[in-house]
Amino acid sequence: MSPESKARSAEKAAALRAEMDLSEIRRARKLSQEQLAEILHVSQGSVAKLEKRTDMYISSMRRFIEAMGGELEVTTKFADHTVRISQFSDL
User: Fold this and answer.
1) How crowded is residue 60: how many other Cβ atoms within 10 Å of its Cβ?
2) Which of 28, 31, 48, 51 lies 20 to 30 Å from 2 when distance is taken between CA atoms?
3) pTM of the prediction?
4) Which residue ranges does UniProt annotate as crossing the membrane (predicted)?
Protein backbone atom coordinates (compact mmCIF):
# COMPACT_ATOMS: atom_id res chain seq x y z
CA MET A 1 0.00 0.00 0.00
CA SER A 2 1.08 3.52 -0.66
CA PRO A 3 1.72 5.83 2.30
CA GLU A 4 -1.44 7.75 1.40
CA SER A 5 -3.54 4.55 1.35
CA LYS A 6 -2.09 3.50 4.70
CA ALA A 7 -2.92 6.90 6.17
CA ARG A 8 -6.52 6.77 4.87
CA SER A 9 -6.90 3.23 6.20
CA ALA A 10 -5.58 4.26 9.62
CA GLU A 11 -8.00 7.23 9.71
CA LYS A 12 -10.96 4.99 8.88
CA ALA A 13 -9.92 2.46 11.53
CA ALA A 14 -9.61 5.21 14.14
CA ALA A 15 -13.06 6.55 13.25
CA LEU A 16 -14.57 3.07 13.58
CA ARG A 17 -12.92 2.57 16.99
CA ALA A 18 -14.19 5.96 18.19
CA GLU A 19 -17.87 5.00 17.91
CA MET A 20 -19.25 1.53 18.68
CA ASP A 21 -22.32 0.02 20.23
CA LEU A 22 -22.01 -2.27 23.26
CA SER A 23 -21.88 -5.52 21.28
CA GLU A 24 -19.13 -4.12 19.04
CA ILE A 25 -17.13 -3.07 22.10
CA ARG A 26 -17.56 -6.54 23.60
CA ARG A 27 -16.39 -8.23 20.39
CA ALA A 28 -13.46 -5.82 20.08
CA ARG A 29 -12.46 -6.83 23.62
CA LYS A 30 -12.63 -10.46 22.44
CA LEU A 31 -15.35 -11.41 24.91
CA SER A 32 -18.35 -13.63 24.21
CA GLN A 33 -21.75 -12.90 25.69
CA GLU A 34 -21.30 -16.01 27.82
CA GLN A 35 -17.97 -14.79 29.22
CA LEU A 36 -19.39 -11.36 30.01
CA ALA A 37 -22.47 -12.93 31.60
CA GLU A 38 -20.22 -14.95 33.89
CA ILE A 39 -18.31 -11.82 34.95
CA LEU A 40 -21.58 -9.97 35.61
CA HIS A 41 -23.23 -12.99 37.31
CA VAL A 42 -26.20 -12.88 34.92
CA SER A 43 -27.45 -15.08 32.09
CA GLN A 44 -26.21 -14.84 28.51
CA GLY A 45 -29.73 -13.77 27.54
CA SER A 46 -29.50 -10.82 29.93
CA VAL A 47 -26.30 -9.68 28.23
CA ALA A 48 -27.98 -9.98 24.81
CA LYS A 49 -30.94 -7.90 26.01
CA LEU A 50 -28.69 -5.26 27.55
CA GLU A 51 -26.71 -4.92 24.31
CA LYS A 52 -29.92 -4.19 22.39
CA ARG A 53 -31.32 -1.61 24.80
CA THR A 54 -31.43 2.01 23.68
CA ASP A 55 -32.32 3.32 27.15
CA MET A 56 -30.76 2.16 30.41
CA TYR A 57 -29.60 3.30 33.81
CA ILE A 58 -26.14 4.84 34.05
CA SER A 59 -25.32 2.26 36.74
CA SER A 60 -26.17 -0.62 34.39
CA MET A 61 -24.02 0.85 31.64
CA ARG A 62 -21.17 1.38 34.11
CA ARG A 63 -21.30 -2.26 35.32
CA PHE A 64 -21.29 -3.50 31.72
CA ILE A 65 -18.32 -1.33 30.71
CA GLU A 66 -16.36 -2.12 33.88
CA ALA A 67 -16.93 -5.86 33.35
CA MET A 68 -15.09 -5.44 30.03
CA GLY A 69 -12.21 -3.65 31.74
CA GLY A 70 -13.26 -0.11 30.87
CA GLU A 71 -14.38 2.99 32.71
CA LEU A 72 -17.57 4.89 31.89
CA GLU A 73 -17.30 8.64 31.67
CA VAL A 74 -20.34 10.83 31.01
CA THR A 75 -19.66 14.03 29.08
CA THR A 76 -21.71 16.65 27.32
CA LYS A 77 -20.58 18.62 24.28
CA PHE A 78 -21.44 22.23 23.64
CA ALA A 79 -20.45 24.27 20.61
CA ASP A 80 -17.52 25.84 22.44
CA HIS A 81 -16.48 23.18 24.97
CA THR A 82 -16.99 19.74 26.50
CA VAL A 83 -17.90 19.14 30.15
CA ARG A 84 -17.44 15.91 32.15
CA ILE A 85 -20.54 15.34 34.30
CA SER A 86 -19.22 14.49 37.76
CA GLN A 87 -22.37 13.48 39.63
CA PHE A 88 -22.18 9.93 38.20
CA SER A 89 -18.60 9.36 39.37
CA ASP A 90 -19.53 7.75 42.67
CA LEU A 91 -22.16 5.27 41.43
Assistant:
1) 12
2) 28
3) 0.73
4) none
Largest CA distance in the chain: 48
Cα-flanking dihedrals φ and ψ of residue 65, to 5°?
-65, -45
**What is the pLDDT at residue 29?**
93
Say if CB 46 and CB 53 are below 8 A apart: no
pLDDT at position 16: 66
Q: What is the pLDDT of residues 6-31, one digit of tens each?
A: 888 878 777 766 788 999 999 999 99
Alpha helix (H) ranges present in 1-91?
Answer: 3-18, 22-28, 33-40, 44-52, 58-67
d(CA 57, CA 37): 18
Number of residues that make up the chain = 91
SS3 category, 82 = strand
What is the Cα–Cα distance from 41 to 17, expressed in whole angstroms?
A: 28
Closest among 72, 71, 38, 65 to 51, alpha carbons compared: 65
